[in-house]
Write a structure and sequence with these properties.
Length: about 425
């Protein structure tokens, strides 16, 4: 869709749901919400959904926060000051407790508590999107689908391998893409009629006609339940409204390279998925190439010196601004900003977040290190199963995670975890 088409669009208000705990991503979410977790060396996870709206010319955006929100609020303050504050804005909306005391009880409840934002803006369409996935999407194309199909609600959907679809809402559609069935996280997902090895999964991103959304939320508030869009709102709307499935595979991003995975979308809800999505950024032909000037991912503005590499071997790596690497061996790594790596260090298949120092001759393999850590000289992490007492709530695998602000004296302390 051409940039000029933006002027012919209806008025759209975006509500970004950024209040989730992200418990499966512990310990990275021990001190921050999932959307605030750093990613790709220079970004936070929330930057992807916000960049999609910004690049699509949809810039009236409320970000609804809740748990451990300070890190996210500070990031938005620094990185997302846009527009005139009237028609173009990114504003943070903490729990207001307008209607009752307590935290939001579900995704729909979060929006219901802030109906005044919708009523004050009087949009034609309300976009309700999550903030914790890695993907690029032109929202104008989904909006055009919504209008052309005369939908009351449009749900972004993605065909997914049947074996990995249990953790998502599963959609059943007719031949015209109208949704006729919806089941939230079923133990046995229903296969697509034309693809017996695939299930059509909801991405948790919705477009609502405003009047339909207001009625649905008011009705839901009077009922018992989880007050969730997937579990409660959508199943009821199927019987009353025209609810359509927008296939994300039909979305075309400008500047996409031939080697990139079409319709790349990742739920980085676990440490393993988060690590793999970082690895997908690497190499000459990455599955998800962020070097796309036609659809840039916006993050905090660069203010530091360029990275400095002195007598190093570096292969398949991203290295953030202000980092200094001296006589080290770096292979298949994503390294954040202002990271210091001393001589003789060997690091492979790892994600190192900002303001971390790696001591001389340390050997790290398949490690995720949170911000602000100091790894002592000679440390060995991730080799031959070394490191760690598991962090509570994290399943064991072959990755080692170092939570934020670990004291540097002893790498055998239980704050290090295999995950």
């Amino acid at each position: 869709m051409a940039q000029s088409d933006i002027t012919h669009q209806p008025k759209v208000l975006a509500l970004i749901l950024a209040g989730g705990k992200g418990e499966r991503l512990m310990p990275l979410t021990e001190v921050r919400s999932k959307p605030a977790v750093p990613f790709g060396g220079n970004y936070r996870i929330i930057d992807f959904v916000l960049s999609n709206f910004y690049n699509s010319g949809l810039t009236a955006i409320h970000v609804m926060v809740q748990y451990r929100s300070q890190s996210l609020i500070e990031h938005l303050r620094r990185a997302w000051r846009i527009g005139d504050g009237d028609r173009q804005f990114v504003t943070v909306v903490p729990p207001q407790m307008n209607l009752r005391r307590g935290w939001y009880e579900g995704t729909a409840d979060a929006v219901y508590h802030n109906l005044n934002l919708i009523q004050d803006a009087s949009p034609d369409v309300v976009a309700v999107f999550g903030a914790d996935h890695i993907y690029r999407m032109d929202l104008r194309q989904m909006l055009r689908f919504h209008l052309d199909r005369q939908a009351d609600v449009s749900v972004a959907a993605l065909p997914m391998p049947l074996a990995s679809a249990q953790g998502f809402g599963i959609i059943e559609v007719d031949r015209n893409d109208r949704i006729i069935g919806f089941e939230e996280k079923p133990p046995e997902p229903k296969a697509m009629p034309t693809r017996p090895d695939r299930a059509l999964s909801s991405m948790g991103n919705y477009l609502f006609n405003t009047d339909v959304l207001l009625r649905a939320l008011s009705d839901d508030a009077e009922r018992s339940g989880t007050h969730d869009f997937g579990r409660d709102i959508l199943p009821r709307l199927l019987r009353e409204e025209r609810v359509m499935a927008y296939n994300f595979r039909d979305n075309e991003i400008p500047g996409l390279n031939y080697y990139e995975e079409p319709a790349y979308w990742r739920d980085v809800g676990t440490i393993a998925a988060y690590w793999q999505a970082n690895m997908d950024l690497l190499g000459e032909t990455p599955l998800n190439d962020l070097r796309n000037a036609e659809w840039p991912i916006r993050g905090e503005s660069s203010r530091g010196l360029p990275a400095s590499l002195v007598n190093c071997y570096v292969d398949h790596a991203l290295i953030g601004e202000g980092s200094r690497v001296v006589e080290a061996d770096i292979r298949r790594c994503v390294i954040g900003r202002h990271v210091k790596i001393e001589p003789g260090a060997q690091i492979e298949d790892s994600v190192i977040l900002d303001h971390t120092s790696i001591g001389a001759k340390a050997r790290l393999r398949r490690v995720v290190i949170d911000r602000g850590n100091a790894i002592p000289a000679g440390s060995v992490l991730g080799h031959d199963g070394t490191a760690a007492v598991p962090f509570p709530g994290v399943a064991a695998s072959d990755l080692t995670v170092v939570p934020k602000a670990v004291l540097p004296q002893d790498v055998s302390k239980p704050r290090f975890s295999s995950t």
